[in-house]
Amino acid sequence: MSKxxxxxxxxxxxxxxxxxxxxxxxxxxHEVLQDSALRQCVLYIPTKGALQGTTLEGALGTKASKxxxxxxxxxxxxxxxxxxxxxxxxxxxxxxxxxxxxxxQKMMDKVDSNPHPKLVICVPRLLxxxxxxxxxxxxxxxxxxxxxFELIGNKVVEAALLSMTSRINLGNQVLSSLDQESVxxxxxxxxxxxxxxxxxxxxxxxxxxxxxxxxxxxxVKYAIKAFGLASxxxxxxxxxxxxxxxxxxxxxxxx
Length: 255
Prior knowledge:
alpha/beta, Rossmann fold, AhpD-like, 6-stranded mixed sheet, 10 helices, 6 strands
């Protein structure tokens, strides 16, 4: 089965006067008109209070706002829009398109853990509030060239991450005890050979390659601990550790 391509759009709110929100809603409607498969559209906001007396309410209009606050579906051509908040949006929430308003990283992690959306539009509370999401996906920003992020500069570390990803159960929200040991070992082997990488880059890479946000956070925790060791871990002189490190070096050389 081929992997579904997800269109991700970032619309920074530079004026805080509602223009970014209006642009996001217009972008959603444009995509709905272009793609009949986008039937279930979700407006995802922190709380219902974010839709009362705000620029979002002004952008939506009174009729749509009242309907959404009453938990009713608002019609959009052949589709519909409904409201979800941080308390109600889950990893299994049905949705073909999600517009996240006043977004932060926690909200975007929830969207990333949901396998259903084909379209994600993000209007962040502050641009730096979704920095990790932006690094992971390099989303489209209207009227601007798309940024191409090289998440991992150290190719040996990237080869190790690919190895970890092939071994762990990506279906788990958190790492199992066996997966924890595997990840810990990998980062300690890297440290033993003086290899390191920015933890934020590791998190962004893991999210992009299918790790749940909680599992990615665990990986970062183990990376920080291993990379912060003052001296080389003595137990990693064993033959198997040398072998696997050599495999990573070979993988890095192949690109």
